[in-house]
Design a protein that fits this description.
With 391 residues, this protein is an alpha/beta fold. It contains 12 helices and 14 strands. The chain binds pyridoxal-5'-phosphate.
Amino acid sequence: MERPAVPELTVPDRTLMGPGPSDVHPRVLRAMSTPLVGHLDPSFLEIMDETQALLRYTFRTDNEWTLPVSGTGSAAMEAAFSNLVEPGETVLVPDNGYFGARMASMAERAGGDVVRVSAPWGRPLDPADVERAFAEHSPAVFAFVHGETSTGVRQPDVARLTDIAHANDALVIVDAVTTLGGVELRVDEWGIDVAYSGSQKCLSCPPGASPLTLNDRAMAKVLGREDEPRSWYLDLSLLEGYWGERRAYHHTAPITNVYALREALRLVGEEGIEARWDRHREVAGALRAGLRGMGLATNADEACWLPSLTAVRVPETVDDGAVIERLLVEYDVEIAAGLGDLAGEIWRIGCMGHSAREKNVSHLLSALGAVLEAEGYEAGRIEADTPVADD
Ligand SMILES: *Cc1c(COP(=O)(O)O)cnc(C)c1O
């Protein structure tokens, strides 16, 4: 076989305004060029402690069981479902977005019987519907998505939903992939038993080590399981041996990703978690105002607005894919198309972490304006207050 002629690595200089990954802070990239030490080196054990402490700060939790799971957000998600769901248990999940469907799939693979609480794509869950679902199905686990990246909807009333679950003796798993480090999230105060996230969204860190936190009640269930979870790699009772006090080998930690996550979380700490939530709201607010100023419809409902991901309705006369491609090729800006029920109907514009800066928003708005004009769109013809999805 001939040796392939592969040039030195170069990539275009993109501005990442999609649903993740987001732009990585230069300090995080520098941390990734730090030489490796062993995964049991005393210096690395200290780095693990520091990373866990910073994760607790960012999650707003005192949970001892707070760790980065090796892999992307879906690995932390699968760790949550495969450990918390025991075969034969009823698991309640939402059906108002793409990631709720992924939850169902993971819960099923863990042996759970999946039941659903419904809301239209583009709307949050209604607590009354959750109450009805509990009365009907008595689930042992209730999972929902805090920030639905497929629709740009933030689930309000999180504490009300966890109250309903706890009054029915269920455990709550929350998907915080698109909210951790960008949108108000208070794991302890809101009564969340298990939350997982990813690193490449509001934490602006390359994908590869994904935050997970469990309270004592959830961890007691995991440690008291009758049969082992089907995944060996993600078995939290084994991972506890490495990330817990013993620090014994289970699998080799993704050392460079842990360096990166530590630095990304240090940036969260320096900014202050609440100031960071405020910045996301302000910058995304300017984005949304700018889009509406161009006559585009964005998700209108303040009560479930997700600052980290704005969904914009594609005007009828415009081809969504052509706009995405021109933004990328002509302006080096990445945004994304709709998924599932909203494919072809919306664009998804991220405002996450290091990407959530005013200069990015101005660049995106002027680029989008120029591309839309080139595609024949006349600004101002669309009803700006139309919800992105039909109620
Ligand atoms: C991105 C995302 C995931 C999956 O994370 P990956 O890093 O792509 O594996 C899960 N849930 C939500 C809400 C997400 O936005």
